[in-house]
């Protein structure tokens, strides 16, 4: 097994294989229920989470494995000053795979370097969130039958929104995506992510500040929360947090087939009335997140899904 710190750690065929596996898992829940019998997952979450931690854990439980870990480091020896490396050297003795979330960029890589078992990045600061991207890709795939040849708007906090960085990075590898980057000038996409698009001849991007004037062009709109926890200054957060609020009035200008994605949690940026619109895809993303984590955990461990014909692209 190997660690997954960014989706660059997987080839495009490996990502496509995970998409296939997740579909198989969804329709063969009973058959796959013993895939990871005897395995143990550790979830080491140094930062709040609802979906990511619970879906990593549910995924392992539904595959027949077991779970240990901490949610918030307050009750662990991190409070006594233990380093990430020492924590991982310890936990590696107990488990077969680790999922780690940490507020510092690069923490998952430090963890993987120290660990003796595969480490999966469950979000490292404002940097990357690769398993969210797997959920996003599965959702695009189910809505459009493809993840590229699309015009995708990404809207909100493009500076600190790690899900956006992982998604752009990965979509560039699939190619043929037109990105419309919608943010206030204070929350623009970081240069390292822009460089990724620039290095991909089949992809293009525009940076704009107004959602209404571009919404009609979009196949998918990826809304994001303004990441309060990454701001240095509360006044800046309060000034920027409600810049974009997607409601039914704004959606009237959008294509009837447009998909609205959001990694969640949301605060104000999507009005609750949108939840009943057939274009709302964000709770499908939640379900896809669990299925993709089942596919990833079993693959990282080299555990075969009963009845599934494995390809020669093991992780
Ligand atoms: N999408 C996501 O990462 O949600 P949580 O922060 O609740 O895990």
Automatic annotation (TrEMBL):
PROSITE patterns: CARBAMOYLTRANSFERASE (PS00097)
Matches recorded under InterPro entries: Asp/Orn_carbamoyltranf_P-bd, Asp/Orn_carbamoylTrfase, Asp/Orn_carbamoylTrfase_sf, Asp_carbamoyltransf, Asp_carbamoyltransf_Asp/Orn-bd
Catalytic activity: carbamoyl phosphate + L-aspartate = N-carbamoyl-L-aspartate + phosphate + H(+)
Biological-process GO terms, alphabetical: 'de novo' pyrimidine nucleobase biosynthetic process; 'de novo' UMP biosynthetic process; amino acid metabolic process
EC number: 2.1.3.2
Enzyme superclass (EC): transferase
Domain of life: Bacteria
Span of domain Aspartate/ornithine carbamoyltransferase carbamoyl-P binding: 2-141
One MF term in the entry's GO annotations: aspartate carbamoyltransferase activity
Pathway: Pyrimidine metabolism; UMP biosynthesis via de novo pathway; (S)-dihydroorotate from bicarbonate: step 2/3
Domain Aspartate/ornithine carbamoyltransferase Asp/Orn-binding: 149-296
Keywords: Pyrimidine biosynthesis, Transferase
Binding site for L-aspartate: 80, 162, 225
Coiled coil location: none
Binding annotation for carbamoyl phosphate: 51-52, 101, 129, 132, 264-265
Similarity field: Belongs to the aspartate/ornithine carbamoyltransferase superfamily. ATCase family.
Quaternary structure and interacting proteins, as annotated: Heterododecamer (2C3:3R2) of six catalytic PyrB chains organized as two trimers (C3), and six regulatory PyrI chains organized as three dimers (R2).
Biological role: Catalyzes the condensation of carbamoyl phosphate and aspartate to form carbamoyl aspartate and inorganic phosphate, the committed step in the de novo pyrimidine nucleotide biosynthesis pathway.
Name of the featured protein: Aspartate carbamoyltransferase
Organism, scientific name: Bifidobacterium canis
Name of the coding gene: pyrB
């Amino acid at each position: 097994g190997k660690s997954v710190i960014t989706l660059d750690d997987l080839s495009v065929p490996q990502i496509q294989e995970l998409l296939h596996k997740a579909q198989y898992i969804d329709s063969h829940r009973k058959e796959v229920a013993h895939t990871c019998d005897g395995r143990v997952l550790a979830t080491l979450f140094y930062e709040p989470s609802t979906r990511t931690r619970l879906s990593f854990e549910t995924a392992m439980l539904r595959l027949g494995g077991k779970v240990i870990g901490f949610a918030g480091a307050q009750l662990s020896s991190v409070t006594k000053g233990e380093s990430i490396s020492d924590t991982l050297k310890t936990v590696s003795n107990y488990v077969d795979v680790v999922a780690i979330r940490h507020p510092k960029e690069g923490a998952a890589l430090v963890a993987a370097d120290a660990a003796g078992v595969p480490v999966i990045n469950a979000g490292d600061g404002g940097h990357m969130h690769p398993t969210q991207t797997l959920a996003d890709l599965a959702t695009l795939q189910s809505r459009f039958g493809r993840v590229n040849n699309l015009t995708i708007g990404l809207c909100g906090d493009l500076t600190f929104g790690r899900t956006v960085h992982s998604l752009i990075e990965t979509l560039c590898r699939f190619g043929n995506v037109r990105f419309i980057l919608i943010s206030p000038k204070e929350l623009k996409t970081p240069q390292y992510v822009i460089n990724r698009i620039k290095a991909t001849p089949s992809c293009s991007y525009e940076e704009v500040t107004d959602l209404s004037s571009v919404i009609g062009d979009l196949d998918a709109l990826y809304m994001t929360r303004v990441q309060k926890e990454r701001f240095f200054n509360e006044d800046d957060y309060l000034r920027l947090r409600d810049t974009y609020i997607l409601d039914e009035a704004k959606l009237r200008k959008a294509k009837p087939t447009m998909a609205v994605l959001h990694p969640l949690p949301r605060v104000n940026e999507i009005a609750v009335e949108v939840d009943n619109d057939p274009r709302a895809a964000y709770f499908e993303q939640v379900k896809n997140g669990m299925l993709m984590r089942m596919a990833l955990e079993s693959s990282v461990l080299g555990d075969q899904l009963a009845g599934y014909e494995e390809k020669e692209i093991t992780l």
